[in-house]
Description:
This protein folds into two domains: about 160 residues, no CATH class; about 120 residues, CATH 3.30.1330.60. The protein contains eight helices and twelve strands. It has a six-stranded antiparallel β-sheet. A four-stranded mixed β-sheet has the order 9-12-10-11. A two-stranded parallel ribbon has the order 1-8. β5 and β6 form a beta hairpin. The chain starts with a helix and ends with a strand.
Amino acid sequence: MKLISFFTILVLFGVTVAFAQLELLLPGVYHETHLEEQEFRTYQLPVGPFRNGKVKTVSVDGEVVKRAWRVISENDTTTTLMDSLRKQTEAAEFKSIFDCDTDQCGGFDFRFHGEIFLAPKMHIDLGNYKFLSAERKQGNEREYLSLVVSRGGNSLFLQLTFIGPPAQLNLKTKSSNKVAESVLEPKNTLMETVAELLEKYGSAVLSDIEFEVGSGELKGEDYLSLSDLSQYLKSNTKVNIALVGHTDSEGDTDRNMELSKERADSVSMVLISKFEVNPSQVNSYGIGPLSPRVSNLNATSRSMNRRVEVILLNSK
C-alpha cells in the first residue's frame, strides 16, 4: 500500500516515473536480425482479427521501436515461446489486449496488414504464427507493444513492436540456454538447421541465400545454410540432392526459367568450389514461377517465392 501511495503522489505532482524494465528471457541461442527506431507518430495497433477486408486496430501515439530476433531452439514451439513471452510481459504489468493464433487472427490476410518485417529479418509461416498486443499504464502515461512469433526450420522468429514515450523503451534480452552465454557469434549456432530439415521433411529452403536483383550472382560470402548442407553431404556420401531455383511470376516466363536455373547453378558451384562437396552428389534445376509457396499478388508474397530449395534424392 505504501508503494502504491508513493507512486500516486508522484503522479499527482507531475513527476515522471520510469516504467519498470522489460527483460525478455528467450529459449536457446538467439541473435537480433533487425532494429528499427522511428520518431513520434501514430501507429495502428492490431486489437482484433482480420474480418470484412480489414484488421481491427486502434490508433496509438508514441515513438515506435521494432526489433526482431531469430531464436535457435530445438524443443520450443511457437506456442511455448508465446506462452513464455505472455507471462513475462504480464509480470512487467502489460495487460493483454488481443491474443490470437493463425486462424483466430485471420490467417494469411492478418499477417499482411501489420507492420511486420520481411524475410530474412522476420520469417512468418502463414500456417503457424501467433500474435499478442498489450498495454501498460502508469498515471497518464501509456506504453503499447505487439509480439509476433513464428517458425522457420528449427528456428523461431520473434518481432516486438513498442509504442510509447520517446526513449522510454527499457528492454533487455537474455538466453535461458547457459551455453549461449559463451557464444561470441550466436549466428554460428544456426548449424544443422538444413540437415535436420532434410532428415525430417526431405527438403529445406536455403533462407539465407540472396542474389543480386535480376541476376544469378550470389550476394555476400558467408552462408550458414551451405556450410551446414556441405557437412551433411560429406557425412552422407551416398546421398544425392537437387538444388531447385524458384522465381516469382513477374516478368518474362522464359527468362524466369533461365534465372532460376542460374541461381541453382550458383549455389551448386559454391558448394563444390568453396565447401568441396563431391559434384556427383549435387544436381541443379530451375522451375521459374511454376511452384510458388504463396500467391504472387503482392511484394511480400513474391519475395517468399524467390528462393532456392534443397531436396533430398534417393541414395546412390
